[in-house]
Amino acid sequence: MQCEPCRTGHSEMCENLGNNLDRPGGFAQYYTVLPRQIARNVIYHIPDGISYDRASLGEPLSSVYACQENINVGFPRKTCKTTWC
Q1: Is 62 exposed, middle or buried (0-12, 13-18, 19+ CB in 10 A)?
Q2: Those residues with Cβ within 8 angstroms of residue 44's Cβ, 6 or more apart along the chain or in another chain
Q3: 0.70 exceeded by the pTM?
Q4: Cα–Cα dist 34/10, whole Å
Q5: What phi and psi values does residue 23 have, to the nearest 5 degrees?
Q6: Rounded to the nearest 5 degrees, what angle is found at the Cα of 48, between the Cα atoms of 10 and 63?
Q7: For residue range 43-80, what is the model confidence (pLDDT) as tens digits?
Q8: Which H/E stretch holds residue 39?
Q9: Residue 14 contacts residue 3 (beta carbons within 8 Å)
Q10: Do the Cβ atoms of 36 and 42 come closer than 8 Å?
Q11: First and final C-alpha spacing in the chain
C-alpha cells in the first residue's frame, strides 16, 4: 500500500493501477484480470459451495459496511423491549 487512497482504505482509487477507463467494468459480460491485479492480491476467489448469486452480494454489502464504519454507525448500547398488546 504505497499510495494515499490505498492507505486510507480506498483501494478502488489506487494511483498505481494505471488507466482503467478504457477497460470494461463490472457490468461487462467478461472481464480481463491483469497480472498486476493478481500480484496485488485484489482478486477474491469464490469459495466452493457459494453460488454466483450469493457471491455477487459480497461487494455491495462490503461497501455498505465500509461506509457505516467510516461514519461510525453502530448499534446503541442500550436496548429497549417492546411488548405488543
Answers
A1: exposed
A2: 58
A3: no
A4: 19
A5: -105, 150
A6: 20
A7: 778 899 999 899 888 888 888 888 888 787 766 666 55
A8: helix 35-39
A9: yes
A10: no
A11: 56
